[in-house]
Amino acid sequence: MNFELTSDQRQVRDAFARFTDERIVPQAAALDEAHVYPRALVNELAALGLFGMRYPEDVGGSGMQLTEFCLALEEIARGSMSLAGCAAMQSLMGTKFLHMLGNADILERLFKPALAGEKIGAICMTEPDSGSDLGSIATTARKVEGGYVLSGRKTWVTAAPVADFFTVFAKAGEEKKLTIFLVERDFKGLNIGRAIEKMGVWALPTSELSFDDCFVPDSHRLSREEGDGEGHLRKTLAEIRIITGAMGIGIARAALDAAIGYGAERRQFGKPINRYQAIQLKLAEMATALEAATQLVYRAAWLRDADKPHHKEAAMAKLFASETAATICDQAARVFASYGYAMEYPVQRYLRDVRFLLIGGGTARSSSSSSRKRLLRDDARPTHQGGTRQAGARRPRPGREGGRARADGRRHGGDLHRIAPDPRGGGAYRARRRRRRHRAVVDVGLAPAVLREAEPPVA
Fold first, then answer.
1. What percentage of residues in the chain have a pLDDT greater than 70?
2. Residue 411 · residue 417 · CB < 8 Å
3. What does the alpha-carbon distance between residue 323 and residue 315 come to, in Å, rounded to a whole number?
4. Closest Cα partner for 178 from 127, 126, 133, 135?
5. Are 206 and 360 in contact (CB under 8 A)?
6. Buried b (16+ CB within 10 A) or exposed e, 351-390
């Protein structure tokens, strides 16, 4: 295996890391407090080619792979989750279906200007009574001469107050199946509703909207056929989950860096708090979890780029990376103690913003359910013994042969973890103590490596 980035990938990462350090980080707090869509920075990202990275050159993109885009988005999220959310919407969810399904007029008039930052796109799926359950979507599209009439309500529409066009999922046809439509902002019957006040990502406006007998011409039915919307969505869902994981890595890095820096500066009882083992172990555990999440996300991206099966890995990466990011942001705030509750430090923003990722791309339970279903589906594949495991059949537990307990009563495993009969008694207790000491040695050995580059010389 080769885990090294290519030269092109390093260039992408370094370019957006510089942009984040020079342009995003210095104004991240001000962007957050203004509660306004960061149009100037969005235009700068467009000039860097971010929005076209995942699209071919013949439509104004650069034809890069998902890995490169994740590297860029990770860096942006390190600076501002609000801006990363804007970038993700403009680069994928708000424009993907136009590129996949749009006609020549839509590509020229809306899609290409969106890649240049001149038009803003949004997507409308969630409804007041419909979230992860797409089957409960109630918005309808009634066929009339020359087009369709849309009726219904949508909520949690990201960038709705500033969007120029909306990709809308509604039920159409006799079977009332999901169909994709494109609604432009000036279409009669489209109404932008109330803004939703959120606990985080304040610079990414979110609103409700409604369709009151909104006429949509046939040219703006993006679906090839009535009812094919869910199939097109599933083609994109894995990519959405992977980039959500990449944003989680970015904000987790920012939180960990902040905690490491504060631990080196804050002094208690005559020395920096990062000299105390409790803080060292906390930072080491945060860094370890972050590394694991990073590997999951970029392996899923690599599988997608290699055109290999990746939906299960995408769901796993999104679930683990978003949950890990939330944990790291929480633990970083604990390192700051009372200052983690103060608005003057950015860690409070990380703690608020990271919850955006727990919902975006599918809730934790829906991601977990997706992984479970694919695991069960894979469970019927041939095994290495040459047989075929039936779906739902239980695997033998380690330490059991043929599904039965071993005769000597010992547990399977290496010497460190084996509990053997002890003539003096208390063998199981001593084995547990050895395991705990082993884990502690690993953690203590890792902590200095996490701190080494960040801490100042000690007088």
1. 78
2. yes
3. 12
4. 135
5. no
6. bbbbbbbbbbbbebebbbebbeebeeeebeeeeeeeeeee
Q: What is the DSSP letter of 110?
A: I
Residues 6+ apart with CB under 8 A from 134: 125, 169, 178, 230, 233
Q: Which residues contact 79 (CB under 8 A, 6 or more apart)?
A: 20, 21, 24, 25, 28, 250, 254
Residues in the chain: 459
DSSP secondary structure, 288-350, as one string: HHHHHHHHHHHHHHHHHHTT---HHHHHHHHHHHHHHHHHHHHHHHHHHGGGGGSTTSTHHHH
Share of the chain above pLDDT 90, in %: 75
- Here the tokens at position 266 are 């804050």
Q: Would you say residue 194 has pLDDT above 70? A: yes
Task: Report which listed range, 3-12, 360-369, 417-426, 438-447, is most confident.
Answer: 3-12
Q: In the numeric block, which tokens belong to residue 376?
A: 């069960």
Q: What global pTM score does this model have? A: 0.81
Question: pLDDT band at residue 284, thresholds of 50, 70 and 90?
Answer: very high
Contact 416, 434 (CB under 8 A): yes
The DSSP secondary-structure symbol of 422 reads: -
The predicted-structure confidence for 293-323, as pLDDT tens digits, reads as follows: 999 999 999 999 999 999 999 999 999 999 9
Measure the CA–CA gap between 337 and 326, rounded to whole angstroms.
17
Q: What is the pLDDT of residue 447?
A: 61
Instruction: Please give the radius of gyration of the chain, using alpha carbons only, rounded to the nearest integer.
Output: 25
Q: In this structure, what token pair is assigned to residue 229?
A: 């919307």
SS3 content of the chain, % helix, strand, coil (to 5): 55, 15, 30
CA distance 276 to 350: 24
Ramachandran region of residue 285, left (φ > 0), alpha (ψ -120 to 50) or beta? alpha
Confidence of residue 431 (pLDDT cuts 50, 70, 90): low
**Nearest Cα to Cα of residue 184 among 214, 148, 224, 225:** 214
| DSSP state at residue 459 | -
Distance CA(315)–CA(232), nearest Å, equals 17
